[in-house]
Amino acid sequence: MPSRHHFRAFMENPDEEKSNAIHSTSGAKDYGFQGALVGGATVYGWVASWIVETLGKQWLNFGWARVRFRQPVYPGNELELVLDDDGTIDVHRDVDDVSCISGQVGQGEAPWLGDIRIPSRRPPESMPDPLPHLTLANAPVGQELRSREVDLSVADAEAYARHKQGETLDCFYGSGALVHPAWIAEQPIHWLHHSYDYGPSIHAESRIQHLCSAEVGQSFCVAGTCRDAYERNGHHYIVNDTEIRDAGGIAIARVQHTAIFRVRNTSG
User: Fold this and answer.
1) Share of the chain above pLDDT 70, in %
2) Does any domain span residue 240?
3) CA-to-CA distance for 156 and 138, rounded, in angstroms?
4) What CA–CA distance (Å, rounded) separates 236 from 93?
5) pTM: predicted TM-score of the whole model, two decimal places
6) What distance in Å separates the CA atoms of residue 25 and residue 29, rounded to the nearest whole number?
7) Alpha-carbon torsion 227, 40, 123, 115, what sign?
8) Which position has the higher pLDDT, 182 or 122?
9) What mean pLDDT, rounded, does the chain reach?
10) Rounded average pLDDT over 171-197
11) Would you say residue 268 lies in a domain?
12) Any idea what the CATH number is for the domain that residue 193 is in?
């Protein structure tokens, strides 16, 4: 029997200006959307939380997900997540029954894991000053980008889980709290911003392989390779393969992240 879960999308202060204008009301409307778009990694985090509740914490230790963001999710949307016995995921809006997210989850090794390139560059590097603006012409396809080190303190992790995700699972709080899957899903975004200026942008697809669970309260290194860049229907896309390692150098996740880094303006 399919597992079903209902939840309400939310976002703190959608009317405020954001670094990614797509996540603010006025900025999103400038590009033809109804209102601020809830971030794809945030929505994925709600899905992943239910996966953990359904499959158990072992999914974070060695499990995978592939999700495609098909339609916008707006603050206040009532959503239903359906997780079938075969691992198929569908998230749709109750108001119009439109599918917003589709995908697949599983335990163990993903069938596409070998397709994600493992980076050779390890030591973190500082951001260039100034940051070059990302375009299709200068997209570094086939090249490794600057590695990024990021600290995730216990306090920051708790604030992230509580305020951004509205998380209710105990495993993401307190002593020995685990790194939240939404935090893992969004690291390729910050990693690309470590080498290039770009945006507004939209999360389009993620393949995420958890290799082992990790506790908060340490630093992590994100490294990776630009896989592809292309135009489709007026949008400019970039695909990146990334790996996240903990302070001991152990790989905790590999993520292939697809994003629209230049959004087609449909407002006019």
Assistant:
1) 99
2) yes
3) 35
4) 27
5) 0.96
6) 6
7) negative
8) 182
9) 95
10) 97
11) no
12) 3.10.129.10
